[in-house]
# Entry
Amino acid sequence: MNIDSIQNGIVIDHITAGRGMELYDLLNLGALDVSIAIIKNVSSRKMGKKDIIKIDADIPVDLDVIGYVDPNATINIIRDGVLVEKKSLSLPERLVNVLKCKNPRCISSTEQELDHIFKLTDKEHKLYRCVYCETKAN
Ligand code: ZN
# Structure
């Protein structure tokens, strides 16, 4: 894949340097059979250094996950080699099946089929709590 010329796909830009791999893992991109490039420590006038993920396929990505890892990242949707849409992100109010509760007695730990749901309780400190037992995410 020529990483500079994606025809149809998604470029996640302005990722905080060092978080590209974390995002790659949380988005479960390793499980996809598509061309993906993670470019680390790219010089950025705005940020000093940044990471970029290029996905050479028109697949849905979980914007909540990206917003959670890095609300300052930007999403560029490329179609036929042209940038057709730019999306900015914010911290999601709820995260479903992104994080797992660390409380072993939480109902989401014992009931396999329950969704793991976390709620943003403090935007300034990016604090999420389990909706079942209120345990902090981090
Ligand atoms: Zn819990």
Notes: The two ends are 37 Å apart (CA to CA). The CA atoms of residues 105 and 133 lie 9 Å apart.
